[in-house]
Description:
alpha/beta; about 240 residues; 5-stranded parallel beta sheet
Amino acid sequence: MFKNIREDIASVFDRDPAARSTFEVLTCYPGLHARILHRLSNKLWHADLKWMARFLSHIARGLTGIEIHPGATIGRRFFIDHGMGVVIGETAEIGDDVTLYHGVTLGGTSWKEGKRHPTLANGVVVGAGAKILGPITVNAGAKIGCNAVVVKDVPAAATAVGIPARILDEENKTGAGFNAYGIGNDHNDPVNKALHGLIGHSMTVDQRIDFILAQLEKMGVPVDEERATAEKFDPNHLNEIVD
């Protein structure tokens, strides 16, 4: 127990530059308090003292603002930063070195018994307000952006953002590391890329139409009406809107 607590304190110093002393971490970090109380409630749960386990988790929720079901499985060096509003369901499984920020929900999408909450593999970072729902897997080293809603598996080392969450393209991996709110170093949103591509294609089509009309004019074909009715758009303005 004490070895695990020492590891938890060390993980706070590793991941929160605001931490100044061990005493401060022990007395002022609700994520650490919630983790210690969850260890106790989890032991009671597996000892078949279900009501006592739930009551202890209820007390922990009131003290910390963090709700962890006593049946949830949590690995080593688990860190909840700020913590208020975090909810972790009964069948959730969390690996080692996982970080959650405030407002995160590891929730279920079914009322049926059995596995109904997410699995977070080692080293996952979940940004503030994110919702990970259902018996899905967020694989090792993945990052979930703030306020994302994740309902499908996330590949290892990927970054997922949006509602519903989609995977960002991270072509440039240099400098990748811990990001405080789960945001990737590279914001290559595939939807933005697709929109920019369509805008660029439309601009090329307009240029080709202008060229065809110019050639027709040289041949003596009247094209004034076509030029007058052609709709123009500003690709630079549209690209700014998409960004």
